[in-house]
Amino acid sequence: MPQKPKNKNNQNIYILGIESSCDDTAAAVLKNGKIISNKVANQAVHEQYGGVVPELASRAHQQNIVPVVDLALKEAGITPYELSAIAFTKGPGLLGSLLVGASFAKSMSLALDIPLIGIHHMKAHVLAHFIKDDKMELPEFPFLALTISGGHTQIVQVNNYFDFKILGETLDDAVGEAFDKSAKIMGLPYPGGPLIDKYAQKGNPKAYKFPKPKVKGLNFSFSGLKTSILYFLQKQQQKDPDFISNNLYDLSASIQYTIVNILIDKLKIAVIETGINRIAIAGGVSANSGIRQALLKAQKDWGWKVYIPNFEYTTDNAAMIAIVGYLKYQAGQFDTYNLIPKARIPLND
Known about the structure:
Layout: E1 14-19, E2 25-31, E3 34-41, H1 54-76, E4 85-91, H2 95-112, E5 116-120, H3 121-127, E6 143-148, E7 153-160, E8 163-169, H4 175-185, H5 193-200, H6 223-239, H7 243-246, H8 248-274, E9 278-282, H9 289-302, E10 305-307, H10 319-330
Parallel strand pairs: 1-4, 4-5, 6-9, 9-10
Antiparallel strand pairs: 1-2, 2-3, 6-7, 7-8
């Protein structure tokens, strides 16, 4: 049976959030809806492999989780005994990485005799918008969420904290993969997405035209774009072996311009079909300057109401896990110790 909440201080609700879905070990402490510490340990070991190696990731989580949680609690200025509940990522993600976070959260919850709350990773990205932060405006329900990351690309209608409806999603590669794989084709190191964004700011976005995939409805496809970029570069390098290095800025700008327009075009359709013009972006790719600028332009030109998260809440972080834990704590939604994390998990699970 779910544990009963024990608010020992009778006033403040402290939630410890733990995120370990991929290669970042993160812990955050939330007090009454406001983040008071937010720590993360990155894993540089994956850079030499051009992507995340699951076995190495899970081993690094085992090494990092205790010191990261300890640091988060110390910066928050509280002891473990003041915690009201522990929230952790239950999926989706790398199973080995998820198991490390889940096992730690369960053990700590059991030792402290406080509620355990499993959190859906992608829901947390969206609900990070509800962290109490003076720099962010809270979205009004219902709104459309564009969740864009290395593993996900979705347009979701969010009716309330716990009611999500997927309107469209990628049929193959996620948008983050499209950025990283395009960067890899150009010989850029992993992760290449942020580098494309950096170089794009110095280039001409209309220097090269890449085809947009023709996908009906609100679904996405990025595998064809990646292939067209590969063939284009191979053809150009036959004429000029230094084509990429000589045109890096324009190539980056053109690739980013194409991807951003694919996203915006689908959002236009979603706004028309639902009648909802409140748009929130979430996920690691929401840090991309191109998509942020395009949404701000849409807000000005088309009257959309746009919600853009702080940079620290875009990539995988524990603050987003803690805020959903807080919302579920208030709703009395607790989990038992037989909860098993899953690599794949439906959005409304």
